[in-house]
Structures are given as structure tokens and as C-alpha cells.
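Might I ask for a little of your time on a matter of protein folding? The record follows directly beneath this note:
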Amino acid sequence: MNKDNLEYDIIIAGGGLAGLCNAIHLSKFDKKVLLIEKNSYPKHKVCGEYISNEVLPYLEFLNINPFDFGAVKIDDFQLSTTKNKVIAAKLPLGGFGISRYTLDFELYKKAKENGVAILQDQVIQVNFKKDVFTVETKENKKFTAKICIGAFGKRSLLDIKMQRDFIQKKSPYLGVKIHVKGNFPKNKVALHNFKGGYCGVSKVENDVINLCYITNFSSFKKHKNITDFQENVVFKNTFLKEMFQNATPFWEQPLSISQISFETKKPVENHIIMSGDAAGMIHPLCGNGMSMAIQSAQIASKLILNYLNDKIESRKQLENLYIRQWNKQFKWRLKAGHFIAMLFRKDKIASFLLSILKRMPFLLPVIIKQTHGKPIKL
């Protein structure tokens, strides 16, 4: 498809998991899709890189098998508190580990194979008038479409321009990620707490360990740099100290991202269908953001196809159905994630909860289920 074409059925702003899955899904049904992404592929991103198995049926529908690209099966879960108390459980549904570097690149290649027009540029303005979207980019290009999907991640220029509610509030979180070589079970994902934050540990393809943590920025800025923060705060958790100090980094410097927000977002803004992190983020303590992004694409794409094929009568009905289905699928998960994260920020409560879970270990899989879905029905 020629991306110099100015008119499309759908324009997608952002080419992460949600944007790419939307693009593949919609293009499977011969819709003219333009995806605009400011970065080139492949690219590493700050991300936990664990995905619940609930998305496997949908990825199969998109003709993507993550295990063809080295994804690692994960079925064990480990959790530690700031006091270094630990509990383990089997994951009720299981999951897999794969890097964003690999998964995004494979989805990108599939989208191109399907005929999606992919433009490396940045969307700076979206206007909606007379039932048509006009999308303007940083490189002074202008496109029109019947539908616009916002899949631009955690925080973007468009969020600011639209004055979305969450953007008015301070975003106090910082994320840091590094890939390392070391000893860690292939089938395990671990979440280790330290004062003011959490770190996820899991294997991805090529026997690589992903270490990704999030912390309150107010805690971080008391220290000179990432190394100083890790030595004085993160390494108070003995599991993390051992992991970091006995591992060999693949990169000279870790990746970092600031101003991460877990505030409530609206799934539709200015008639733009928001997908992935643009619609809402689950707290990383619950470790399931990637599957939520993928699943949100399925919800959006199915409804958009019905609208474009006149099975949904009006744009208002489309938007209302998307909001309803998004909330049904994710609203409880987000609330549960916020609540669990709040409890674990309080050391005494976290230690008390852990003592209960050790006496009644069957409760941990029940809690995990609150932040995970069931296998996606096609």
C-alpha cells in the first residue's frame, strides 16, 4: 500500500503492541490502514516482558506464534516483600516471556506483509469534523480517515494537546530496565519489592533475563544516579542484590522512562478510540500490561470492523460499545491492581498479608486471577 495515499479507512497513532495488533487485525479484512510510529523497528522499550497466556488464541488469529521467535514458557510465580519474606505459587493460566524488541518487530513485519502502510513520523494533531478525522504529522503530512485509533503509549504530545484528565496530574513514577546474562529459572516470573518500588524478573528469548523496576520518582531523586539508587535502595531486597550483582549486563546503560501515570483514563477521547496504555495501565506489580494492550486491540478492531461494515449504526454506538466492553474487560483488573499495589506499599500490611498467604497458599492464585483474564474468545 502506498503511504503517499492521503485517505484511509483507519489511521493508528502509535506502533506499540496495541497499535500493531490493531493494524494486523484490521488489514486482515482488507481495510486501508495507516500506522504512524515515531520510532524505527526493532527497538527496546521499558517493559516487564511477561505476557499472560490469555492472548495466545488472539495472536494465533493474527498468525503470530511467539514461540516461533524464542518466547519462554512461564508457569511459576515468586513474590518477595521489602522485608525479604518470600512466597511462591503456580500461575493459574501461565504465560510467556518475550522481549518487546522481538515481539514488536515480528508484529511490524506481519503488518507490512498484510499491506499496512507504516510511516515513521509523529502525529502532532488530530481534528474531527463532519465525521472525518484529519491527522497531521511532525513532517507536515496530512491524512484523513473514517476512524482514528490512539495507541501512543503511556504519555504523549497528543495527551497534552487534548488536555486529557490524567495529564493534568503529576506522574510520579520512573521505570528502569536492563537485559542481563545470569542464573534464573526459565519458567519463573518474580516480583520483588523494595522501598518505594517493585522489580520484575523473567527470562525472554535467547536465555536473556529481563530486569525491570518501577519506583516513585521522589525516592529516586534523593540519589546521584541509577547505580547509587540501586545500591542504596533496590539492593535492600537480598533477592535483587544477588540477581543484579551476579549478572552480566548486555547494555552499557539501562533504559529508563519517567512520568509514568496510573491515573484513570478514558477509553474514548475526542472520538478517538484509545487502545493499549493510551486507554489505561495496570500497575506493574500485577504484571499483565502487555496482555491488556493486545486484548484491547481485539476489542477495538472487532467493533471498528462492525462499524465500517454497517453492523453498528452510528459512531456514538461504536464509542459506547467500546467503552462498555473495555470497562467490562479491564476496569476491575485496574482497580484490583491499584488496591494490591497500595497494600504492598505499606510494609506492615504487606508482611501481615504474606503471613496469611503462607498459611493459606491457595489464596495467592485467587489474587493473581483478579488481575488476569480468561483466554480470549475469537
Remarks:
- The chain has a mean pLDDT of 88.
- The longest strand covers residues 86-97.
- The first helix runs from residue 17 to 28.
- The two ends are 27 Å apart (CA to CA).
